[in-house]
Structure formats: structure tokens, C-alpha cells
Amino acid sequence: QKEVEQDPGPLSVPEGAIVSLNCTYSNSAFQYFMWYRQYSRKGPELLMYTYSSGNKEDGRFTAQVDKSSKYISLFIRDSQPSDSATYLCAFRDTGNQFYFGTGTSLTVIP
Amino acid sequence: EPEVTQTPSHQVTQMGQEVILRCVPISNHLYFYWYRQILGQKVEFLVSFYNNEISEKSEIFDDQFSVERPDGSNFTLKIRSTKLEDSAMYFCASSWQETQYFGPGTRLLVL
Q: Residue A20's pLDDT is what?
């Protein structure tokens, strides 16, 4: 079983839709949960960061963590064409090592 | 806004040659990282560096890789004898607390 599983998509939604992106993980040592956005030919950009189960909101973005199910989600409300990018889930273990998902490609159609 | 910079943006080398990838982290950051992303694949952690020494490294980071902070600003990744499979995008990142900032990457092509 892979440590991190993320549906690669591609995901295509109309402008204004709610987007749900998900990752599952198997490593109980993962303590920190992150979502990154990566535009083509650019480095990943940190969107959200959390270390506890529950929801964390930042503008149109909500990160959700369920440690008992080893499942994290990112919700994007009122999606915009500028949200079109690849979204990566990432995890940090107790030893400061980071693990990334394969990324989900999102296109928001105007 | 401060940012992580990387040079060169592209590097082409022959198999067996040594390459050095350079990064300038954000100035007040304390943790430094190198990642690799092979085309179409996930971002892979290589190594983290803190207080002038390696704090964590992955299985990918074998003896052909080394990192160095030769002065107060630069952070380098050296690949001693490049292989075809080292062709990838290499990202440097730095962080102060939990927020990690990535550079734009160096695209390495080994022929």
C-alpha cells in the first residue's frame, strides 16, 4: 500500500462550482497535513497547513483532516479560472520528512 | 515579498558528469530542503538541512548526492556522477516554522 494516495484526475468544473480534492494516507507518523498548489513549470505553493483533525478555513479554501480515517480533503468554494492548477497533498512525519501525493489536475472552465 | 531563488533554471549534462544546483533560501529561514520531481510524477523529498547538517534524508539521497551551505546565503545540491534517471525538476525549499516556500526549480536533463 502506498503511503499517500491521491486521485490524479484530471478534474474539470465550471466556474463557481465547489471543488473537493482528497487524499488518503497510511502512515500513522504523519503529524502535519498540507495542501500545495502548483502551476505549470512552477514550484509548489503552500495553500493550507494544519496538524489537527477538523476543519480549517482560509477564504475560499477549507482543509479537512480526519486522522481516524487517515483522510484529508481540500474544498474550494466559488472556484475561479485562476484556480486551475495541480493540487498536491503533503504530509510531514515526526522526523521532519515530507511526503507528497501525485497531485490532482484541476481545470476551472469560465 | 521574499522568495527562494534557484540557479540555473535549466541544466543539460552528460551522464557521469558532476552537477551543482544552487539555491538562495529566504534569509531568515532556518530549515532548507531539496526535492525532486520526475516529469509527470510526484514531488519526492530528498533531504532536509538544519543548523549546518542534514536532519533527514530519503532513500533517494544516496552517496552520489551531497548538500552544502558554503556561505550564509547559498544552499547547494551536488550530484557527483549523474545518471540518466537523475533527469528531473529539482526544487529547493526553505522554512522558518511550518510554512515551506519553494523555489521555481532547476530542470536537469542528463544525456
A: 96
